[in-house]
Amino acid sequence: MPPVDWTSIRRARLPYSYGRFARAKGFVFERWCELAAERAVALPADLSGACKYGSLFVQSVFGGSIRGHFEHQYNCVEGRLVDLGHDALDVGRMGEPYRHEAAYFELPEVQARLAACVPRAERWADAFLRDPALSG
To answer: Is 9 within a domain?
Structure first.
């Protein structure tokens, strides 16, 4: 199977807005906590470690592309840097969290890790988009 181009632009299912970003961030944090409970690990204080799920979720909902490198992933939506984990402790400790290395996304192990996260991220996106409050 040919590699997926994770950095290609995907069409939005919902237009981006700051209000929707805030709702998305809270929604993903709730799911991240649920995943921690499911895995029987400590509940997270923030979205540290969630960037794969977060970036796939944002791309599915708001479109755009995924950007990043070995430490962190984020999104570019209509020319805007969008990062659900922008204020997470792990991101704050990085020297260059918003560096982009396109070749990183071509590595077989990165392809496999992202592909493994897609089903859950898509379920989260679908559930988020079912919220009738988002239409306004």
So the answer is: no
At 9-44, the pLDDT tens digits run 999 999 999 999 999 999 999 999 999 999 999 999
Chain centroid, CA 117 distance in Å: 10
Number of separate domains in the chain: 1
The boundaries of the domain holding residue 51 are: 18-131
Q: CA–CA separation, 107 vs 110, rounded Å?
A: 5
Q: For residue 79, is it within any domain?
A: yes
Kindly report, residue by residue over 49-85, the tens digit of the pLDDT.
999 999 999 999 999 999 999 999 999 999 999 999 9
Determine, yes or no, domain membership for 48.
Answer: yes
